[in-house]
Queue: 4 jobs
Job 1
Amino acid sequence: MDVGKSCCINETDSNANSGSDLFTQQAYVGLKGAFGQIALGRQHAPGHLSELYDALPDMAVSPQKRLAELANLTIVSEDLARWNNAIGYTGEFETLGVSAIYSAGNLETNQAHGISRTDDDKYGLGLYYENGPLKVGAIYHAVKYKAQYDGVWNKNPAGENETQKEWLLGATYDFGFATLAGSWQQGRDVLGVSGFDVHLWQIGLIIPVVGEDTLNLAYGQTKLDGGNAIMGDGGSVKPKSLGVAYLHPLSKRTTVYAAYTWIDHDDLHWNQATALGQDDNGHAGDSKVGDTNLFYLGLNHQF
């Protein structure tokens, strides 16, 4: 059960045929052996493992998840990092892991204001190191867009075919009394818009409390920079987010939790949010997106 009050942006695409893939899980066949695993089908891209460096892994209150999805980055733990019609490889070799994927996709859709997108050419690579209390990783994604957004500010279509390029560096260290986690990521030519860049960093702590209970908290900030078709004047805004959760395991597979997240959208206007593919919910385009405050009470069961 989620209980909250928000003026936040909808987490859906603009067209009915491009709804959320949140509950569309992996479906693949493959071969697995000492060499690793090769698989065909819908499967996780390397960006899914960004959760390894998040103090609120795979949770709706995670600043990394919230800010990455706001900016249309695909290095995130959930649906944007599950790719269709893909061939993927994963392998683990003592302390080192590797993940690679190429996706032919199945998406042909127009997002808000004429962003024309296909996902028939995207690929990713991840390298992961784990030794005792230390985890370190690097992830790269590339997603091709076939045309640039022709927005309300840019009356003449640029007709560019830009590739959205992303990378993330992350690490965690378990000190015993607490685990420190953090990551830094960047996206260039996001949404296929030349010059529209995104910078995102986040840091957090996992603190043992009583028994197996933990207090998890994280803070993050992103910078949406340049790209007249999105930002209008080529300027920048810096949305930021704070997330906190108290987790109480009932068993190995079931956890109850209470959580809170806050998002400050800085000077982001609704016409800019719409250019990012979000629903304006009837707000005036020149008005600012307000702060978001969400409270959660929930139960998580791993099937």
Job 2
Amino acid sequence: MSFEYSIIKDFYDCCSVPIKLINYEFEDLCKIGYTDFFDRIYPLEDIKINIKNCKDELINTHIQLKNDINYKVIDICKYNKKIGYFIIGPFRTNHITNLINKDITYKPLTCSNYLCNLILNIYEDKLKNQDAPNTIMSPYIRKAIGYIHHHYQDEISIDSICEKLDINKCYFCSLFKKYTGHTFSYFLNNFRVEKSKELLAKTDLSLLEVAFSVGFNNQTYYSIIFKKFTNQTPSQYRSSMLLKE
């Protein structure tokens, strides 16, 4: 698990509000809690405008869209001038839902500043326990993770990634393990399994369709990998989610 991903995972585990880390070119570095719907409503242009118009040295701004869809933008240049911004949200501040925001986590407006403090406290805490050279992720690994996030449905191999990055395969594998704590294959399969959980819980797709949708080329292998990471078969996971409704 990368340093940055471990931060946003701890945050998400605490408050269940989606969060992502983006660079200064507004590209995703890592994210958690996002769905296809959240990706569609992600207000990239609003975020760019707010950052451009913000005169504070350290940006900490609140963005509220129609239908009570809210985001917080936090600049982390104080800790690492080479990364970018935490984007917290979407979350809603009104406990009354509508058809648009019914799947969005509710957090009272008074909590919004605490969300910012929480993510920065987590960052500071983890920073204290990291060796300084390891707190800045290799650009090769950042690009590889970004590629997985955007192309997990496609056929991906270490060889193809190394070719795209123009990097030696053995060196890439050692870097990936150093910065994420896992092999490339483990990281890719885990990400695909997490994506498949969303489809199992929220769609009526068959297991074969789910497998293909997240990049596995056959249902049997998908089921084996899914059980390896969750101790459940895809069918068992889907049944357990239905019982919670």
Job 3
Amino acid sequence: MTRIATLSETRSNCHDCRLRSLCLPDNLSKEDIGELDSIVQRRKPVARGAYLFQAGQRFNSIFAVRTGSVKASTLLANGDEHISGFHLPGDVIGLDAIVSRDHPSTAIALESTSVCEIPYAELESLGDRLPTLQHQLVRIMSRELLAEQSTGHLLTRRAAEQRLAVVLLKFSERFANRGLSALRFRLPMSRLDLGNYLGLVPETMSRTFRRLEEQGLLSIAGKEIEIVDVCAIKALAYGNNEGDLAAKA
């Protein structure tokens, strides 16, 4: 039976973690995983609304999400919050601080969240001895950059329905990569946060969800989403038969 995406299960060491194919242990030998595991610090769960780190804070570690979810945000010049992304289990956070050595963004737990803290100085030292680990870190950074560029391109100058369709398909793909359902999943963030990320005001977000449900593309129960017509959602998001779907709105 297909599991609904809840993202609450993982193990307490790198070798047994079901998320290791998404994280630093991927492609490492058993011995190398043991060395990586020796520098990983596993924190107690972080409460909803708590900070993993804040913008301007000195960079010391990167973090791998084990359970829960995290949003990344920055403050705009006018003091408004801008949400730049959402992180799920298996994601590595804090990579954008490696160059400046100060965190450019703030990471906030969206729910009770467990992370693995990896001191960067120790990771660098270990990477000097384990080229495969160094290569895996570069792959993760490249993957994050590509995902950010791809999503940003798809969201540029698009109608509200198209933006929402794009981000739901992106979440669908991410849940599937974690062995969970690609069609039924729970969005961890509030509609307000999702609207902030998409550049849509709350009223538009509510109206957009409702219209997609009325068109038979989605089934919605609170934060739980079911993609009912995946072909239509893809057409709306990526442009095939876009005119026909827009007409239905």
Job 4
Amino acid sequence: MMQRILPHPLLTVMLTIVWCLINNEFAPGPILLGLIIGLIVPVLTAAWWPDRPPVVRPLRMIAYLLIVIYDIIGNNLTVAMQVLFYRKDSLRPAWIVIPLDLKRPEAITILAGTITLTPGTLTVDLAQDGCTLLVHALHAPDPDAVRDDIKMRYERRLKEIFA
């Protein structure tokens, strides 16, 4: 019964918060309307979410998000320095193939999105068999180190979250 009324509780909370942010106030009116939207949208879209991934360790998702935010901020500064102060011929862009241990499409999507959100890297393609990602790095003097960093920093954590 509860699953039918509240099929995606995190989506409900997120939609409520986003609605309040759009309205630029956390007053009773926007909160109530955001809650109504947050309850209706997941119910109407539940048919397109038949196979929700089990999140085994939700607290690790919070830690993952904090790491991603930290990396986004740090890499913004790094890329700004590279663009402003490096000579163009000193940058070493590289195409990097990342073999995936992840199997769930949702986890692979989060990994690809994380790579793309992090300045200086871009997920370009997912192999048809879903076993490798093609990533472009703006400056990768050692492409193997970038690959290993992505696997250790992001993919390992996603494997723990979506066990």
